[in-house]
Design goal:
Length: 363
């Protein structure tokens, strides 16, 4: 196996906890001896040991001495909730370290590598596009303290998103449904609108492999109309409503009594100031935000250039003339897209648009 193979295995391990580690990054690690992996580890979440320590703790006595550590992200060198990984690597007698992403966190950036080299441990950065893609959200949040935003929208072949009178319709097939749940799982939080909640009464949780996982859910709800009987009160990890400063104090109080965090947002000509919304979400430590709502919300984030990625599901089935049109601004999508791909998922076609270029960390 080559260096890239071991680093890609690290990313695979990190992916198992993607969406559960924020504000920490998700990290994977393998320990290699004689070109064979002898231990693997990953960061489970805040307060738990880091990936390097998780892997090294699985070895006994001097099993790790003289071995090579591969890790998806530069090893940390500071005391936080856990001790520095560089110290654990030194104690284990590791000979070489290879990592796949330079940590943009100024507390770590370049210092982890320098600490290992100073201790006589060879430490080398190997850049891979897969790892750059994996850490795009972490790098963006670290630099801006705002989330990396992905929005998804499903439409019929005739570009409709719901039946007449906004009645919900199952537009895409089971395969796209599973893809959506995977994206929800790998996101730190979800965002929707009050219109989606009222008309669809969705669960907006993760349902994969007969397991249900709750996620923090943000709701754009200008006038605090969230019905207390909505499914999301049972299926979301937490509920945060963004509302106008003009919203009725009694409705706000009623939501707060039901454990909803209510956050007042300034309004502009478009409605709630979405940039301010994202800033608030970023302060919660959310790095990956998944938006699942209607075309109006999708277009609002798109036209205000607040999306990083857009995903369009297109069904081969038409809903008919009386159905609700999506009115998606395809011209804006094409204008802002830096990269686009098309894939077949089940019987549906899925379009992926990368809408912003991001400067990766450098030191």
């Amino acid at each position: 196996m080559q260096h890239a193979d071991f680093l890609l295995r690290c990313v695979s391990l990190a992916t198992t906890r993607l969406g559960f580690c924020a504000p920490n990054p998700s990290v994977g690690c393998v320990v290699v001896k004689n070109n064979q992996i002898i231990a693997e580890g990953f960061h489970f979440g805040c307060g738990h040991v880091h990936a390097e320590v998780d892997a090294l703790n699985k070895l006994h006595n001097d099993e790790a001495r003289g071995a090579t550590v591969y890790v998806s992200l530069e090893p940390c060198c500071h005391y936080g909730r856990t001790p520095p990984c560089t110290e654990r690597i030194k104690i284990a007698g590791i000979k070489n370290v290879f990592f796949g992403f330079k940590d943009p966190n100024p507390i770590v950036a370049g210092k982890g590598r320098a600490a290992l080299i100073e201790a006589g441990i060879a430490c080398e950065f190997i850049e891979l596009p897969e790892i750059n893609h994996f850490y795009a959200a972490y790098a963006y949040w670290t630099h801006t303290k705002m989330p990396f935003v992905t929005a998804k929208l499903a439409m019929s072949s005739d570009h409709k998103i719901a039946l007449e009178n906004k009645k919900p319709a199952r537009i895409t097939g089971e395969a796209c449904g599973l893809l959506t749940h995977q994206y929800r799982k790998e996101s730190d939080a979800l965002l929707t609108t009050i219109e989606t909640v009222i008309h669809d009464d969705p669960k907006l949780n993760v349902r994969l492999d007969n397991v249900e996982i709750q996620k923090p859910l943000y709701i754009l709800d200008t006038h605090c109309r969230l019905p207390l009987a909505s499914n999301i009160f049972q299926t979301a990890q937490s509920l945060i409503v963004f509302h106008s400063k003009k919203a009725d104090a009694n409705t706000i109080s009623a939501l707060e009594k039901n454990k909803v965090r209510c956050v007042a947002i300034e309004e502009n000509k478009f409605g709630l100031n979405l940039n301010d919304v994202l800033q608030k979400i970023g302060l919660d430590g959310v790095q990956q935000l998944w938006i699942e709502a209607g075309a109006k919300c999708f277009n609002a984030f798109l036209n205000q250039q607040l999306l990083h990625r857009a995903i369009m599901y297109i069904s081969p089935t038409a809903l008919g003339e009386s159905a609700l049109p999506g009115n998606v601004d395809f011209d804006a999508l094409k204008k802002h897209a830096k990269n686009q791909q098309k894939s077949t998922v089940g019987n549906d076609t899925v379009y992926f648009f990368d809408l912003k270029q991001h400067q990766l960390n450098a030191y």
